[in-house]
């Protein structure tokens, strides 16, 4: 059995601890501006390393200096504690 979906109350509590993130259907997203293209690529590299270590990988969209991270547990069909934990990890890396 995989990681269970967060209930509505659990998701409300989790999102209160992630003020930079927004709900987008069965996912949460955060968009940031990097100071330069290369700084953005380095940020993506750091997030990728953390995601690999956690075995939970975000969708990442790179548009010049704009980075958009999207988290959802596809195998569970929505948001789980894996997503909120990875969001906190990303927040820590972004500072």
Please summarize the sheet with the most strands. Answer: 4 strands, antiparallel
DSSP helical segment count: 3
User: Any idea of the CATH topology?
Assistant: Gyrase A, domain 2
- Rg estimate, integer Å: 13 Å
Gross morphology is: globular
**Total beta-strand segments:** 4
pLDDT < 50 stretches: none
Which second-level CATH architecture applies? 2-Layer Sandwich
The helix fraction, in percent, is 40-55%
N-end to C-end Cα span: 34 Å
The overall pLDDT, averaged over residues, is 96
Summarize the structure.
This protein has 95 residues and is of the alpha+beta class. The protein is 43% helix and 22% strand. Helix 2 runs antiparallel to helix 3.
Describe the protein's topology:
Blueprint: H1 8-16, E1 22-24, E2 27-33, H2 37-54, E3 59-63, E4 66-71, H3 81-94
Antiparallel strand pairs: 1-2, 2-4, 3-4
Helix pairs in contact: 2-3
Give a written overview of the molecule.
- Keywords: Lyase.
- It is an enzyme of class 4 (lyase).
- There is one protein chain.
- By secondary structure, the protein is α+β, with helices and mostly antiparallel strands.
- It has a single domain (26-94), classed as Gyrase A, domain 2, CATH 3.30.1360.
- It has helices spanning 8-16, 37-54, 81-94; strands at residues 22-24, 27-33, 59-63, 66-71.
